[in-house]
């Protein structure tokens, strides 16, 4: 059986006794509520409200309809079940049933053994023997993992030989167990997240200013007068924030900062806002120019700055090495803004944004005619994966000088990514301090220890056993063509010839001792990294409802339980269980958990993160007051609860926004997260030296990243339909139909110059991939040209001349191969967005006749 | 959104909704659809084509449908509103000598707002839907160009005979329904069978 035909002619109705469970969407940070109905095939409810579990009359009304893609048939223990996986019309995030195309089709992503689209799900542990992956039993696989770890760490003498690459999002139970294994049991500092090589903040300019990355409540988007969207597009990647909170409930003018004239740019322009179509990689100059105009006009909030922004240089220096290097007093900041580079007329030259638009944006942001500024600042990967300090610091500065934070309708927040579920037992700080081999030298600071860049540790040989869980670094890192070359070379040595554990050990030892590496890959489906793996471990897809009950939070820190409702492949295991088997094998005596709930109870009782933005402190006391375990108690918290969580009168209470003024916060000591509670302005300086050895500045790096002759910028980001590396969407017919291959949006002039038309397959070649660590490398990928004729571009071209845009992680057509190895030395986050290349036509693509090449940026006028 | 405050925006939303609701009212005088009477009680999991059970109904004429015209008709149930149009170029399953005549259901498959008044035959698109701005490509089977809808816009199958255009079935499920032929009153088979 293939996946249900997306244009199927019938969707069954759940009978009144269908089993119901609740959870949030498996995908994005918005965290829309979903309800799941499951019942045996052969039974069916009726079309009137009292005859079905949905309680609706057919035909269904607004937002009530279970569409064909919200239905799937799964098979368990030889029985078939219908599953309806539909938006929860009662959940506070997406009341009325709002959803995106991703969440709305997740029923079709459920694994079912009777569905050929999922045949390649990993179902049994495997070990590469004589070149091929061979099925083995779990004991052999775990023993092989343990021996590889023992060889790589020299029996614990050199913990840095082990590296782990784990997700930040797949529930607190799993990340708690995984980070415990890495930092606590093995003691290695070499830990990287799914999207970046080190344990670094995504928004260093916020975090080091004392601001939380997620501090607002969704209702702030409805209440703001102005919303700044910089390198962030909720219409594309946070659909329900856009549709329900910004558009339906809200009334803000939007300042949309993006190199592309996409839907939200046109929407902003058509609704009283403005699009600042910034030249690629020049955001710090643009944001500084806006700040300068605000200060020049006296529109900044001096009272707020006086009370809440740190003005004493010595206190800033004592805050930490990062602040010493990159923090600023208001006076220093105003001086910096005085640099002629940031005068609107000069900034217009570099950024491509007209000076009058810079001034208009400054006015929309500062709202000089209103008593208070009600601006919400939203930023995401367009800023984060660039000049990560400068871009995020500039947004923090705008927030602080306008004092627009901590009140309804204000704030600063990230605006994308997964729901979050990252938890540790706190061991990481000491391990990094003691064992990291990476240091930072700046203009002021020398020799500061930072979290190691694990991807460089693969290239340079420090990591000899790489344990990758739930992500695909061979595609998902920077300069990945070069990384794959290194992985191929380091895994190409001795290989076991039988599944005998001593033979496995012999081969791993021989390989590692001659500079090679063993790769373990723990995953749902094989991907590029699996091609280099020696040990493959099948995981249960707990995010989709397989296995036990789990917990995580969304973009307003709404923390909830996700109830499991189905089994995965019988040979697969939940990640925490795999980590626990490994930990016990290496001698840990406190990893003998029964199920995910037991880990949750442990976290709630012993590691609740008291006092932090994400504190779970109130859960255990509330559970106790109700005579329940924490997991049982969370089952009763239907609407979730916003972190930090405290207890009052025997129930949990939430915190709507993190930086509320004094007196309005129940749990946090300080309004801003610094020693004094005052926030710290960040140095955003195009002349900042990032390589003290040769004096290279940000501006110099920009010159090197910029396209040369015959090249254009090739930037990347999301398409609404597609999620991450498409591990579900490449198996989902309805989604595949829209984007059967990766696309490259090209301006018609750039296309015509190269003899390219819509539907042609093109190659993007960068023979000069910037590398801050050494020699530049090479990379290339292919995609289908998406070119919109001038006649059809009713609201303009979404890409301007000299800029191409592509989806960021399409399997086998991945732009990371051309993206630079620029990582801020103070906080090694990669500049994934700043790719470039030559574009050439390969031929007509196979999908030319199947795809729609209509403009995707048509907004209501 | 200077020109409309939140409440107007919400009103606009509600105004655009409700065609499915209207169909539900029509369904009050419930009368078992003929098509259903003939069909055996099947497991809903069986994806059999039921197009032969759709009625064949006259919905327009090639000669009367000019460039850029958009006409509406109900099919196969009362209250199931569709639009008929002639787009700029050739369409998948388009009829007429240039293959440019198509018909689609008028309800956005995202949450059920109407896109009937938002058809642009020149651009070959329907939308952006007034609720959450989904756009559909009318030359490619109602495929979503951008937006949140979880299925294509259902395309009405057409057939041309002696210059007359007949609806003969629908590809895809109409918003609000579990089956296009159930839970409503079939429209009269006005034309020849
Ligand atoms: S907006 Fe995000 S959370 Fe909501 S349905 Fe879509 S992918 Fe899921
Ligand atoms: S109802 Fe049409 S886009 Fe939501």
Automatic annotation (TrEMBL), chain A:
Entry-linked Pfam families: Molybdopterin (PF00384), Molydop_binding (PF01568), Rieske_3 (PF18465)
Region (Disordered): 92-117
Polar residues composition-biased segments: 95-115
One GO BP annotation of this record: respiratory electron transport chain
One GO cellular component term: membrane
Stretches assigned to the Molybdopterin dinucleotide-binding domain: 713-767
MF (Gene Ontology): iron-sulfur cluster binding; metal ion binding; molybdopterin cofactor binding; NADH dehydrogenase activity
UniProt keyword annotation of Iron present: yes
Keyword entries, A-Z: Iron, Iron-sulfur, Metal-binding
Classification via InterPro entries: AioA/IdrA_3Fe-4S (IPR041632), AioA/IdrA_lsu (IPR014066), Asp_de-COase-like_dom_sf (IPR009010), MoPterin_dinucl-bd_dom (IPR006657), Mopterin_OxRdtase (IPR006656), Prok_molybdopt-oxidoreductase (IPR050123)
Domain of life: Archaea
Annotated Arsenite oxidase subunit AioA/Iodate reductase subunit IdrA 3Fe-4S cluster domain residues: 25-115
Domain Molybdopterin oxidoreductase: 121-580
Protein name per Swiss-Prot or TrEMBL: Arsenite oxidase large subunit
């Amino acid at each position: 059986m293939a996946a249900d035909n997306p244009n199927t002619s019938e969707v069954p109705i759940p009978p009144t006794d269908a089993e119901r469970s609740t959870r949030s969407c498996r995908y994005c940070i918005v965290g829309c509520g979903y309800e799941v109905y499951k019942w045996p095939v052969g039974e069916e409810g009726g079309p009137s409200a009292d005859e079905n579990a949905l309680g609706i009359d057919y035909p269904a009304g607004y937002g009530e309809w279970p569409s064909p893609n919200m239905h799937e048939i799964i098979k368990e223990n030889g029985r078939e079940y219908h599953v309806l996986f539909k938006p929860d019309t009662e959940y506070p995030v997406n009341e009325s049933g709002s959803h995106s195309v991703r969440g709305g089709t997740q029923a079709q992503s459920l694994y079912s053994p009777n569905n050929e689209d999922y045949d390649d799900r990993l179902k049994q542990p495997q070990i590469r023997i004589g070149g091929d992956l061979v099925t083995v039993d779990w004991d052999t696989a775990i023993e092989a993992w343990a021996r590889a770890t023992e060889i790589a760490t020299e029996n614990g003498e050199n913990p840095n030989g082990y590296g782990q690459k784990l997700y930040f999002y797949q529930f607190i139970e799993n990340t708690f167990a995984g980070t415990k294994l890495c930092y606590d049991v093995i003691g290695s500092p070499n830990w990287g997240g799914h999207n970046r090589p080190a344990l670094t903040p995504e928004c260093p300019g916020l975090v080091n200013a004392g601001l939380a990355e997620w501090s607002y409540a969704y209702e702030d988007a409805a209440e703001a007068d102005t919303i700044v969207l910089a390198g962030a597009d909720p219409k594309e990647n946070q659909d329900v924030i856009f549709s329900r909170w910004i558009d339906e409930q809200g009334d803000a003018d939007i300042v949309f900062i993006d190199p592309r004239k996409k839907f939200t740019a046109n929407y902003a322009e058509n609704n009283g806002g403005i699009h600042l179509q910034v030249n690629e990689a020049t955001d710090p100059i643009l944001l500084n120019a806006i700040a300068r105009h605000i200060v020049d006009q006296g529109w900044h909030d001096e009272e707020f700055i006086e009370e809440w922004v740190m003005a004493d240089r010595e206190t800033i220096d004592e805050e930490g090495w990062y602040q010493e290097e990159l923090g600023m007093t208001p006076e220093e900041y105003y001086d910096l803004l005085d640099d002629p580079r940031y005068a609107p007329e000069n900034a217009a030259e570099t950024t491509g944004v007209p000076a009058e638009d810079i001034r208009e944006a400054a006015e929309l942001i500062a709202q000089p005619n209103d008593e208070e500024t009600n601006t919400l600042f939203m930023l995401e990967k367009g800023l984060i994966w660039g000049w990560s300090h400068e871009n995020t610091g500039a947004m923090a500065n705008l927030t602080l000088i306008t004092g627009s934070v901590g009140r309804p309708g204000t704030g600063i927040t990230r605006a994308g990514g997964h729901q979050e579920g990252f938890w540790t037992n706190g061991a990481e700080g000491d391990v990094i301090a003691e064992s990291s081999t990476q240091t930072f030298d700046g203009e002021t600071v020398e020799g500061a220890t930072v979290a190691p860049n694990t991807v460089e540790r693969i290239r340079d040989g420090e990591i000899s056993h790489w344990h990758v869980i739930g992500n695909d670094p061979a595609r998902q890192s920077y300069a990945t063509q070069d990384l794959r070359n290194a992985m191929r070379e380091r895994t190409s040595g001795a290989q076991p010839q039988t599944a005998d554990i001593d033979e496995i050990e012999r081969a791993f030892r021989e390989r590692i001792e001659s500079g090679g590496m063993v790769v373990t890959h723990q995953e749902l489906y094989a991907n590029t990294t699996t091609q280099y793996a020696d040990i493959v471990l099948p995981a249960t897809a707990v995010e989709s409802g397989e296995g036990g009950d789990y917990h995580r939070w969304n973009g307003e820190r709404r923390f909830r339980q996700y109830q499991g409702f189905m089994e995965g492949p019988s040979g697969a295991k939940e990640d925490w269980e795999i980590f626990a088997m490994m930990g016990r094998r290496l001698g840990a005596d406190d990893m003998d958990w029964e199920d995910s709930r037991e880990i949750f109870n442990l976290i709630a009782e012993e590691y609740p993160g008291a006092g932090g933005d994400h504190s779970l402190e109130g859960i255990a006391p509330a559970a106790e007051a109700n005579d329940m375990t924490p997991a049982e108690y969370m089952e009763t918290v239907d609407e979730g609860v916003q972190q930090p969580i405290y207890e009052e009168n025997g129930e949990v209470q939430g915190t709507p926004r993190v930086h509320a003024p004094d007196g309005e916060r129940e749990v946090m000591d300080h309004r801003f997260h610094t020693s004094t509670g005052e926030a710290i302005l960040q140095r955003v300086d195009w002349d900042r030296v990032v390589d003290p050895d040769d004096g290279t500045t940000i501006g110099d790096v920009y010159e090197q990243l910029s396209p040369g002759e015959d090249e254009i910028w090739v930037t990347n980001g999301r398409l609404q339909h597609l999620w991450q590396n498409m591990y579900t969407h490449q198996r989902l017919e309805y989604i595949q139909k829209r984007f059967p291959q990766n696309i490259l949006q090209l301006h018609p002039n750039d296309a015509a110059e190269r003899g390219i038309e819509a539907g042609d397959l093109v190659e993007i070649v960068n023979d000069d991939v910037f590398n801050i660590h050494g020699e530049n490398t090479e990379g290339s990928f292919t995609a289908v040209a998406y070119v919109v004729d001038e006649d059809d571009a009713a609201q303009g071209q979404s890409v301007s001349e000299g800029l191409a845009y592509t989806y960021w992680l399409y399997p086998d057509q991945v732009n990371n191969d051309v993206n630079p190895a620029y990582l801020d030395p103070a906080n090694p986050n990669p500049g994934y967005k700043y790719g470039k290349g030559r574009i050439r036509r390969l031929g007509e693509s196979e999908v030319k006749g199947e795809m729609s090449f209509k403009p995707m940026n048509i907004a209501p006028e | 959104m200077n020109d409309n405050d939140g409440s107007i925006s919400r009103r606009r939303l509600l105004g655009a909704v409700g065609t499915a609701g209207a169909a539900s009212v029509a369904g009050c005088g419930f009368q078992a659809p003929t098509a259903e009477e003939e069909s055996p009680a099947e497991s809903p999991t069986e994806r059999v084509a039921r197009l032969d059970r759709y009625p064949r109904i006259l919905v327009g004429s090639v000669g009367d449908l000019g460039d850029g015209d958009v006409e509406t008709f109900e099919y196969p149930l009362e209250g199931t509103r569709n639009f008929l149009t002639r787009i700029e170029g050739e369409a998948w399953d388009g009829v007429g000598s240039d293959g440019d005549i198509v018909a689609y259901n008028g309800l956005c498959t995202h949450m059920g707002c109407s896109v009937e008044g938002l058809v642009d035959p020149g651009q070959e698109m329907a939308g952006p839907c007034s609720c959450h701005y989904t756009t559909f490509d009318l030359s490619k089977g109602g495929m979503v160009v951008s937006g949140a809808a979880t299925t294509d816009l259902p395309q009405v199958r057409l057939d041309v005979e002696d210059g007359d255009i007949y609806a003969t079935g629908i590809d895809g499920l109409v918003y609000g329904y579990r089956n296009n032929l159930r839970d409503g009153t079939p429209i009269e088979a006005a034309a020849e069978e």
